[in-house]
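User: Sequence in, structure out. Go.
Assistant: Echoing your sequence, followed by the structure tokens.
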Amino acid sequence: MEKAPGNTEKAFGGAFSPRVEMARCAVRLAERSVRRGLPERSITIRRCNHIRSALATLTGGDGAAHRPDHQKAQPAIPPHSANYRLATRVGVIYSLAMLTLPKPEVIITHESDLDGFVAGLLLQRLAKQLYGETVPLQAYHYNFWKQRDLRENSAWVTDFTFESRMDKQDWLVVDHHVTEVAAKKAHLHHDITKSAGLLAYELCQKHGLATPTLDRLVHLSNVADLFLEQDPDFAVAGDYAGLVKIYQFWNLHSLINGDLEKLLDHPLLEVMAVKRRVEDPIGYEWSKRNISEISPTVGFVDNIVGNTNSIVHQLLERGATKYTVLVTLFRRQNVIFASFRSRNGEARKIAEKFQGGGHANAAGALLPKSIRSIDEGADFLRQMLNVKAEPGINTLENLFAGIEVGKK
């Protein structure tokens, strides 16, 4: 004989849902921790993940019930229903759980762009606010990062794709790249629609570290990193992003003495604005005439003046080339970097062939130490991207694995 619906079942329209019961269980566990005063780490990472899963179950999205109105996805349940009220409770508790961050031994960020610069400095400030000390900040390019041993018991990592090796207890990962790995132990703050800097700033805001200056800087960084062309600040945001590209991460860090607010309206932005107005149009016309083939789908863009990223974007946007992926090469600290750009998601796939990574349409890789010049780099790419794999013959990945890659 079937059991008659109880109060729980009636509250949810008479249909008993094991997933809803799991959500309710997560609520009870979390509320128990909250009643105890929410001491540090009282809500475990695994419990946080259960709560986050509950939110997705109840709202049809990742925490939609407690997002601001302009960020909400359409909930899968009617507002003001029992499920929606439960989801809201879960959302509040999950927000409280976000406040119990593990103390990091080190903060690690991406060295190549403004987003990593902003996110790293924000997380360093947050750690000092929480623990009263300046946690060391380290920055890596993708290839160096992939070779780094993750020996710390606790760390905060930002602007790097979440991988299984980062899924460690007392590790916080703040990132926006697409990942196929689910967090089981690590605390993952992840949203592909926001830059790493914006995600880091959300954590700062929860601890009272928001300021109008930071609001503006994080907005500009977000616009630049996500390439939000329709935003009225897009051109200015590109100037800010160019600061890290032109002057490099640690030089810029030294110029502002690690004080992020000093970056806003920095005098060097006048230089970037002039370069954009004068150099970029000249560089575009020159580069358009100097695209050489790497493979049938990849073209090498030579550039002698102007913002390379902006020029390559315009070449793709205006259909000025037959290639679906454009690559540029540049030297940093006696090594050659390759930057790949596309419009339909091909860039990251190419970068990953060279042990690099990044976004679907904007990715990069470090070439082997044996490559000493731009010309050698272009020849190397041609050789590797035109390898014909046959049974018993080395694949591209095997060939690349046999080449010595520099370690930081």
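User: And one key feature?
Assistant: The chain has a mean pLDDT of 80.
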